[in-house]
Amino acid sequence: MNFAPDLAGYLFCNLTKKSDNEVYRISFILKEDVDPARFQQAIEDVRPRFPSFFVRLHRGFMRDTLVPVGDVKVETEQGHPCRKMPIDKNGTFIRFLYNGPRLALELSHTISDGGGVLIFMQTLLARYLELGGVLINHAETGLPQLDEPPKPEELRDDYRHFARKVKGKVPNPPPTWKYTPKKHLDFLQIQHGRFPVAQLLSLAKAQGVTATEYLTAAYMLAFYRTQPAARSTKKSLTITVPLSARKVFGSTSLRNFALVTDINFRPADKAGEWSLEDIIAAIKGQLAAAATEEEMRKNLWKMAALGSLPIIKIVPNAVLRPFINLGYRIVSRETSCLSNLGKLELPACMQPHVRTAEITVSNPPAGRIQFVTFSFGEYMEVFQSSATKETIVQLEFFKIMQEQGVDVKYGDYADILNR
C-alpha cells in the first residue's frame, strides 16, 4: 500500500536531506534485557496492522510517495540517538533498536507525530510482552487489535479531511530572535532531566498557569539569562508549542495531525531585569487563546490552503524543493520549540514490566534545540536535544527549576544510554 505524505509529512520530506532529517525517537526501559528474537517477532506481528509506518520515501518527478519497505530488522544501539534516515531505494523511514533493557523505535517525522507514534509503540510493546508470557488484557489497553485490519480513518490525512474554509486570519508572527550557535552534522547531544510532577503542578497552580506555560516561561528565562543578544533584542523570544488537533477534531489518525502555536515574550517591553514571574505574566493566556477550536480551525485551513497551491501540482519536485527549503528557513519563526506530550500512562497489565520511558527528536532544520517533556509515573521527564555542542541554555533551565525548589536531577543522555 502506497501513501501520499500528509501535509506535515510533505513539508518534512521536502526539508529532508541525506545529511539532515528529522527523526522521532521513543524508548521503553524494561525491567529485564530485551530479547532481540522476541522483539523481531513482535515487529512482524504488528506490521500488517500499521502499514503506514513501514515505508520509505520514493522521490517522484512530480510528487513524493511513501512506499512499503522490505524486511525490517532489529539493530543493536550504535552511535548517537536519532541518526539520519537513509534516503534511497534501500532506505527505510523506521528503525528498531535495543541495548540492554532499552527497547527503542526511531522513525522519520514524515510518517507520524507523537500522538500516532505513542499508539504504535505501546501496541508493539504489548505484543513483545505477550510473546514473553505476560497476560495482556486487550480490552483494557484500548490499543489497536492485531486481528483487525487497519481502519481507513487511521491512515487518513486529517489535515485535508477536516479542513474547512473559515473566516478570520491567523495573525502574522512578530519578528523573532533566533538562537544560532554552530550546528554540527551527524551529531546530537541530549540533556536529560527528571523531577517530581507534583512539584511542577504545585508551582504552576500557584501562578495560575498550566504546566506547559510554566515550563515555557522557565525555558524563555534560560535564553534571557544566558544569551546577551536575547537580553538586548527588540525582537520576541518565540517558543513554538505543538497543539493536539486529535482531541479537538476527534481524529484517530496514526499519521501526522498536530498544529503549532507561538508563545511570544519581548524583553524590550520592560526596563530592567525580567524574573520568572514577570515572564509568566507576559505569556499567560497565549496558549489557551490558540488552543480554542476556532483558532485551530484557522490554522488548519491556512495549512491546507498552502498545501493546495496550484504551483505544487504543476512544478516538478526537483525544481520546487529548493524553494520550499529556502522559504522554510526564511519564515521559520521560533527561537526554539517545546513539546509537552502530557501524561504517558501504560495500561495496568503492562506497567509492572517497564521502568520508564524516553522520548526525543533530532535537531530541526532551522532550529538549534528540541525540548520534549512528558510525565511518566510520578516524574516529569525532560529531553533537550541539539546538534550544537553548547549546553548553557539547557543547563540554565534546570538550574532555574532548582531555584524554584524543584528536586531536579539532570545530566548528559550519553551517560544514561550506557547504564
Describe this structure in words.
This protein has 419 residues and is α+β, with helices and mostly antiparallel strands. It has 16 helices and 14 strands. It has helices at residues 7-15, 36-46, 114-131, 138-141, 158-162, 197-207, 211-226, 228-232, 245-249, 276-283, 286-290, 293-307, 310-314, 317-331, 392-403, 413-417, and strands at 23-30, 55-58, 65-68, 75-76, 94-99, 102-108, 189-196, 237-244, 258-265, 336-343, 354-361, 370-376, 379-386, 409-412. Strand 5 (94-99) and strand 6 form a beta hairpin. Helix 2 packs across helix 3 (114-131), helix 7 crosses helix 10 and helix 7 (211-226) packs across helix 15. The protein is globular. The model has no long low-confidence stretch (mean pLDDT 90).
Would you kindly provide a brief summary of this structure?
This protein is an alpha+beta fold and 419 residues long. It contains 16 helices and 14 strands.
What is this structure's SSE topology?
Blueprint: H1 7-15, E1 23-30, H2 36-46, E2 55-58, E3 65-68, E4 75-76, E5 94-99, E6 102-108, H3 114-131, H4 138-141, H5 158-162, E7 189-196, H6 197-207, H7 211-226, H8 228-232, E8 237-244, H9 245-249, E9 258-265, H10 276-283, H11 286-290, H12 293-307, H13 310-314, H14 317-331, E10 336-343, E11 354-361, E12 370-376, E13 379-386, H15 392-403, E14 409-412, H16 413-417
Parallel strand pairs: 4-5, 8-10, 10-12
Antiparallel strand pairs: 1-6, 1-11, 2-3, 5-6, 7-13, 7-14, 8-9, 12-13
Helix pairs in contact: 2-3, 7-10, 7-15
